[in-house]
Amino acid sequence: MTALVGALRLIPLLIASGPGSEIQRPLASVVVGGLVTSTLLTLFLLPILYRWLERRDVEF
Q1: pLDDT under 70: residue ranges of the chain
Q2: Cα 53 from Cα 45, distance rounded (Å)
Q3: Angle 1-39-50 from CA coordinates, rounded to 5°
Q4: Residue 20 domain flag
Q5: For residue 23, is it within any domain?
Q6: pTM
Q7: Structurally, how many domains does the chain consist of?
Q8: Helix (H) or strand (E) holding 37
Q9: Which residues contact 6 (CB under 8 A, 6 or more apart)?
Q10: Contacts 24+ apart (CB under 8 A), 32-37
């Protein structure tokens, strides 16, 4: 929820076209991309990694 709200709050910066937007847009896109990437990694990759390591530990 926190990442979603953070990403949604940056949407106005992503679509800005006024003065200073040439600096705001790339920064906002990097931050939104980082929030999306970290959320997906946390929700999908970490549980898979934990499960894999748990099975590996049982085999030894």
Answers
A1: 59-60
A2: 12
A3: 120
A4: no
A5: no
A6: 0.76
A7: 1
A8: helix 21-40
A9: 31, 35
A10: 32/7, 35/3, 35/6, 35/7, 36/3, 36/7
